[in-house]
Amino acid sequence: MAQSRRDFIKRAAALSAASYVGISLPINDHNIAKAEQGVSWHRGSCRLCGVGCRVELGVKDGVPMGLRGISDSRTNFGFVCMKGMHFWKCMRHPDRLTMPLYREKKSDAFKEISWEQALDIAANRFGTAFRQGGGEAVAYYGSGQALTEETYLFQKIMRGGLQSNNVEGNPRLCMASAVGGYLSSFGADEPIGGYSDLEKAHCFFIVGSNTAEAHPVLFRRIMRRKLDNRETVKVINVDPRVSQTSRIADMHLQFKPGTDLALLNAMAHVIVEEKLYDEEFVKTYATFRKGKNEKTTFDDFKAKLADYTPEKAAKMCGDTFSPDQIRTAARWFAGSKGTVSLWTMGLNQRKRGVWANNLMHNLHILTGQLLKDGADSLSLTGQPNACGGVREGGGLCHILPGHRLVVKEKLRRQVENSWGVPEGRIPAKPGLHTMAMFSAVNEGKIKAIWINCTSPVQSLPNCNLYNKGMERDDVFIVCTDIFHTLTTQKANLVLPTAFHFEKTGVYGCTERRSQLTRKAIDPPGEAKPEVWIVREWASKLAAKLGDPVIAQCVKPFEGLEEGYELPKAIWDEYTQKLTAHRDNDLRGATYEVLGQMADGVQWPAPTREHALTGGTVKKFVKGIDPMADSESKDDLPYQFYGPAHPDRTLWIWLRDQADPEEVPDAEYPFYLSTGRIIDHWHTMSMTGRIPELLRANPYAYVEINPDDAKKLGIGPGDMVEIKSRRGVNILPAKVYQGPVEGMVFVYWHDQHKDRMINKVTKDAIDPGSKEPEFKICAVQVKRVSGPTPLKPFIV
Amino acid sequence: MRNILKRSVKTVFAVVAGSVLIITAGAALGAADGSLSNHPELSQQEMLTPCADCHREATPEIEKQWYASVHGIAMVKCYQCHGTFETFKVTPSREDCATCHADMLDKCPTDKSCWECHVPHMFKERK
Amino acid sequence: MPISGVVITGAAEKKQGLLERLGRLSGLEVYGDDDQGNIVAVLDTASSEAMEMLIDRINRDKDVFNVGVTYLNTEDEADRMTLETAVARPFGFKNPL
């Protein structure tokens, strides 16, 4: 051992010297490192946000020991963020779930049981619920962090097997409004361009997104672009809160929460008044709409904008900036050689989130800042596979795989025929959206619910209300997860799953890019990949209900090895049968192709040849997007073949400013907004178990503007009560020139009962997207005491 | 192929031109380079404070340099390079830089430590 | 027990003789050479002091222009040194602590 270690060092020494003078020695450093150190590096995607950074996990003796960015990857060029570089450290945490756990009543203690018993129980309880109440009595609530293969298989069993469209997932809480926006403005979900525009952009319009903390590696690309071109590249940041993202901004427009629609309309006003729009582009490719079936004209649009002069809008936005600043922003936006807009929850988590998205797209359509290098209307996604798994894979109650609407009979038939199940098996009516689903749990209408890889107990708005339902003993809850969460505390059955890199599958990130992560190590104990769990459960369910159609749903996957062969077969079925000729055509992106790519493939990728080039960088552009050519109807260079706009045009929407559901009044005088911080991910079940990350932000605090703090007599570190009509938190104060006066801000990761801000937030939803308005509600703010020692809390 | 070295391997790079050897050791265990011995003792509670909060006053020059640097803007915080209290080291290793900059380790001279060319905390290149 | 990787640069036309002399030194192993007179070698000595002496010895050879150390591993000594000796100029500080 000592000898071989010294040999290794000697060879390393020789290689170092040789590389200095360019002598090639007859020994290969790659092989030496592997042979001598036993470290192997495994390619995959980062587990955390929606950027889709590519990383290599270093594994020695079956144990993860390091992580590095992949410099060839077009998403991150080798860079990783604070969370990303540490996430692998939770893989071998002693808290990992390693055995199935069961309790009959929710007040009982969990007991370890075998997989055989666990799957029997799950099949029995779902079978019984189905017999009593049909498909409406069962539900699946999934995650934008599940692999595409997992979401696809879960929804297949629910729809094809249990005849239920009660298939939802946490992406409803974060990007449903973005889906609505893309469909209603461009006729097709997901962005036209992607990250490659960032290096070519001359103006960035960042609204409702703290990119620096929520998407740090993309922020790095924007920062680099700005710092390398300080004079020529403009950054406009639009947010009620000054954040880290504002540090690179030339202009920060801080406005009264909920008035962003007025601001976006005012920018359109300036663009129209000053004739900054691209007349030719608008004439050729756009039409104007008041409603889905209500066309209108440019003149109507112009008349509508008369209500949004910069002067009027500045007033509506709270007089925090001047009308001339709006004019400047509009001129920069329209006049740059390429403008990229980026947004996240700030626009989406709103009662009129779809409208906010429409107004954002309006600016791009008007100015023609689309379809060309350095220009895009780019909605950033929060989770690593909200786009790939949930939006594309059929993970919401109203959509089927391949961007198909449940309500369209022809599309349901296509899916049923692909699966070999009888026509009519998939109900024609969409299932319950997330908030309706948990309301049905509250009412005891849903008898069995499977919650996969997410923690609604903490992540639903107004969560006190919905937690009552999850506590009911007549609602059977299965959780599949790697750690206990606040939600497993309300479950009857907790099934331990394999983590990222312990199983194989595909994540699809923000920019239509699908990337493969292959299994690198075994899961601990008896933890199993979800695809195995679902297959085995479905087989038992078929036997229990005596239903051969359920068996048919998993027949193609019987007996396949679960680490690679099983997910591969699921991916093949999904891509070859269900994405064929759809706008997210992934037929060329087989495991074989994805395995060769440093990064992955952007759809449409109908053929292997196209996929091997990396796929489609810009949708709808002939010569770049193969479907723009194959679906072409005329000689124009852009072809909008998306499924939602039969007229094949881009739609400019007439939308008014709309206030949030709840605005401050005499009793609840402050706005509350919530958000994220760089060191933590969602409900902290992973990042809270990594000492470096926990230390960096051990508990939530409330950010208060110094002027407000002075009025309320609140000093730094003082304990402050934040109370809404729904719930209350007590948190330490951070007095900080961040939130606009009259608004407080809390991040939502903390699991502690006193600091869980979703007890306070409001569950109003967008009538179109059904996405809740997490971002705005009204609260009281009161000093409770001086600084108090606090302890971090993880279940 | 990248230079693959485990973090705990104590590797020293010396200057080619001379025979003066700069010896620094990567710290395998908490504060193994003795660097925390000068740090005021902290309670468990105080250890839950981000480094920069105190160092804004304790070492203002360094905090300012970091804050204004690309690492400061991109939110690469103290703990990524220096570790936390258990793993603290004054001098990060090349492998710490490799997490993000593996390709630069291939391109840069192997006989120098990163911070000989990239000024610590400011990360300005090649003076 | 330090190990180092070195590039020994000598007169190209006298390389053969130099290689023979180097071959007789204990603790030195030649791994490769090129036409410009560069020789890649690994030095393996009992201590850092011995390492410096060996490098000095090579430097004194009449046909050697320069000895460049590109790599030095002192993992056995490192623990001892970090416990006993403060680092002369720590990372990030202009002056010694």
Automatic annotation (TrEMBL), chain A:
Q: Where does Mo-bis(molybdopterin guanine dinucleotide) bind?
A: 83, 145, 170, 174, 258-260, 345, 349, 503, 674-683, 758, 775
Q: Which InterPro entries match?
A: Asp_de-COase-like_dom_sf, CT_Nitrate-R-NapA-like, MoPterin_dinucl-bd_dom, Mopterin_OxRdtase, Mopterin_OxRdtase_4Fe-4S_dom, Periplasm_NO3_reductase_lsu, Prok_molybdopt-oxidoreductase, TAT_signal
The chemistry this enzyme catalyses reads: 2 Fe(II)-[cytochrome] + nitrate + 2 H(+) = 2 Fe(III)-[cytochrome] + nitrite + H2O
Principal localisation: secreted
Q: How is it modified after translation?
A: Predicted to be exported by the Tat system. The position of the signal peptide cleavage has not been experimentally proven.
Can you list the GO cellular component terms from the UniProt entry? Answer: extracellular region; membrane; nitrate reductase complex
Q: Which residues bind substrate?
A: 748
- Record protein name field: Nitrate reductase
Q: Which organism is it from?
A: Desulforhopalus singaporensis
Q: Provide the organism lineage as a comma list.
A: Bacteria, Pseudomonadati, Thermodesulfobacteriota, Desulfobulbia, Desulfobulbales
Automatic annotation (TrEMBL), chain B:
Its protein name is Cytochrome c7
SUPFAM superfamilies, alphabetized: Multiheme cytochromes
Task: Tell me which domain of life the UniProt entry assigns to the organism this sequence originates from.
Answer: Bacteria
- Give residue ranges for domain Cytochrome c7-like: 47-101
Check the record and name the Pfam families matching this protein: Cytochrome_C7
The answer to whether UniProt assigns keyword Signal to this entry is: yes
The source organism is Desulforhopalus singaporensis
Q: Does the keyword section mention Signal?
A: yes
Keyword set for this entry? Signal
Instruction: Give the residue range of the signal peptide.
Output: 1-27
From TrEMBL, chain C:
Give one Pfam hit by family name: NapD
Protein name per the record:
Periplasmic nitrate reductase chaperone NapD
Cite the InterPro entries for this sequence: Chaperone_NapD_NO3_reduct
